[in-house]
Amino acid sequence: MTSVAQLRPTAGDTPLAAIAALCKAAGDPLRAQILRVLARDAYSVAELCQVFDIRQPALSHHLKVLAQAGLVATRREGTFVFYRRAPRQDDSLDALRAQLCATLDGSALPAAVTARVGAVQAARAETSHAFFRRRADAFREHQDLIAGHGQYGDTIVQLLDAVRRPQDASVIEVGPGEGELLAELAPRFPRVIALDNAPAMLARAREFAKAHRLANVEFVAGDTAEGLRRGLRAPLITLNMVLHHNASPARMFEDLAAMLEPGGSLLVTELCAHDQDWARSACGDLWLGFEAEELTAWALAAGLVPGDSQFLALRNGFRIQIRQFLRPAGAASSPSTP
């Protein structure tokens, strides 16, 4: 039986031996399915055990083989470890890895696996929804422990004013929270759409708009998939401190790209990757921020291109990234895949 160490290409390997080792790592049907599932999102070992209905020792072996071949990498989230597709490695096998994964991505997963992936995503989403049902009244207090709107709102407004847009352009804010940014959007756009899948938070944003007499704001209950079903489109979409609450950030980028009109801009304000695990329980975070490269990769996969970026250091040790992504005029968004 071939060991994991034997699968790792070394400096002394011939190109043929290295290629054979890589193909052998991906040649097992289960490992091929694991790579297919990891095309979009990162998963913990426990989640992957659920997806593939397999015990942890067996799954860990397969993950180790894939990692040795440079096909998967780990991402630590506080006390949790998530597996994802490995990023580009700029070595002689990089093109082959990319071609292999692209071929796998064109293949359909078994229906049972697809269903269990959906169950894992639904469980993540319910964790976030449950937090907002319980803590909506105290959300601002908890959010201010990390990054309140006042710490980045002015920078977003500056970017808003720098974005070129038609005079009659509408704007969509996904996850308006307490509604603070609505006060800046309403005077600048004839139509503002506030989209939120947490009813309690949408109610708070509605109260804010009413108190500030923001008459041109429409409120829509639902996630970005619901926004697509309703045909919501705009040349500008904002997403502020929302992505780390989302079960599938990569899928959210795909939805946002589809909602964005050609030539439009997506403005994303998000935490940089951090290791402060208390944010899960205190603020309902599913993810401990993101590396800038992750956001860029998800945007590119969705058919968007990076624009302006700003990074803000906060006094409590957190950092914020404010990113602009553009949908090229005439470009089609990438279709969603399981």
Question: Topology of this structure?
Answer:
Layout: H1 4-7, H2 15-26, H3 29-37, E1 43-44, H4 45-52, H5 56-68, E2 72-77, E3 80-85, H6 94-105, H7 111-135, H8 139-143, H9 153-162, E4 170-174, H10 182-185, E5 191-196, H11 199-211, E6 217-221, H12 224-229, E7 234-240, H13 249-259, E8 260-271, H14 278-283, H15 292-301, E9 305-313, E10 319-326
Parallel strand pairs: 4-5, 4-7, 5-6, 7-8
Antiparallel strand pairs: 1-3, 2-3, 8-10, 9-10
Describe this structure in words.
The protein has 338 residues and is an alpha/beta fold. The protein folds into two domains: 4-107, Winged helix-like DNA-binding domain superfamily/Winged helix DNA-binding domain (Arc Repressor Mutant, subunit A), CATH 1.10.10; 138-326, Vaccinia Virus protein VP39 (Rossmann fold, 3-Layer(aba) Sandwich). It has helices at residues 4-7, 15-26, 29-37, 45-52, 56-68, 94-105, 111-135, 139-143, 153-162, 182-185, 199-211, 224-229, 249-259, 278-283, 292-301, and strands at residues 43-44, 72-77, 80-85, 170-174, 191-196, 217-221, 234-240, 260-271, 305-313, 319-326. The strands form two sheets. A seven-stranded mixed β-sheet has the order 6-5-4-7-8-10-9, with helices on both faces. Helix 11 (199-211) links the parallel strand 5 and strand 6. The longest helix has 25 residues, at 111-135. It is globular, with a radius of gyration of 21 Å.
